[in-house]
Amino acid sequence: MLKLENIHAICFDLDGTLVDTANDLAFAAEEMMEELGLPFGGVDEIRSWVGDGHERLIHRIITRHLDGEVSENVYNIANPIFHRALRSRQYRSTQLYPDAADCLRKLESMAIPRACVTNKNTAQAYEVLDHLGIRHYFTVVLGQDSVAEPKPSPDGIFEAAEHMRVDAINVLMVGDSVNDVRAARAAGSAVVAVSYGYNYGIDISSANPDSVINNLNAIPKMIA
């Protein structure tokens, strides 16, 4: 197992890393598409499109293409439908990945500061973390609306490092997508990727993180 030295704090991605939100996002997507009179491709498509915030996700769902764009008029109709359906769902199918909570507990006992850096909006990230009972593990939660530029920009890592009073070079980024790897590289941080996340349906090892792990409980062992 890879051993990491001089790690003083950790930034975690949220969707696809700590929590699986795909089923609830698929529910909201299906409701939206039904009201728009369009076919819905199912939860597997959702899993391959998560990672750049809900705005981009809505464009992808409607166009069924990773780089798809709908008109401003269509987006303005679709957006409130999607979020109304998501709120009504109340995260009932969102769940922690195995050993996520255990990993956070161990890091807390090791006095390793932790941040959540996500491309979700900050308020939505807080809702998910509160729902799953893990918000208290984080010194700071930064969504895409809390930083100048979302991942793959390093802004979230830099700001989290400042909150946790460490240098970015001493931060470990833990995520599931190429955005997390690129953000960490740009910040000068180490990066470990989980094998089970979304990453647009592409094997995360192709992004060349420092290590790929199958279980979050590997993290405390890497930095012990």
Automatic annotation (TrEMBL):
Hydrolase among keywords: yes
MF terms per GO, please? phosphoglycolate phosphatase activity
**In the Enzyme Commission scheme, what number(s) does this protein have?**
3.1.3.18
The cross-references to Gene3D superfamilies, in alphabetical order and at most eight, read: HAD superfamily/HAD-like, Putative phosphatase, domain 2
Pathway(s) the chain acts in = Organic acid metabolism; glycolate biosynthesis; glycolate from 2-phosphoglycolate: step 1/1
Q: What is one Pfam family matched by this protein?
A: Hydrolase
Q: Which InterPro entries match?
A: HAD-like_hydrolase_sf, HAD-like_sf, HAD-SF_hydro_IA, HAD_sf, PGP-like_dom2
Q: Which UniProt keywords apply?
A: Hydrolase
From the UniProt record, list the reaction(s) this protein catalyses. Answer: 2-phosphoglycolate + H2O = glycolate + phosphate
Going by the entry's taxonomy, the superkingdom of the source organism is recorded as: Bacteria
Q: Which family does it belong to?
A: Belongs to the HAD-like hydrolase superfamily. CbbY/CbbZ/Gph/YieH family.
Question: Can you say what this protein is called?
Answer: phosphoglycolate phosphatase
What is the native source organism of this protein? Enterovibrio qingdaonensis
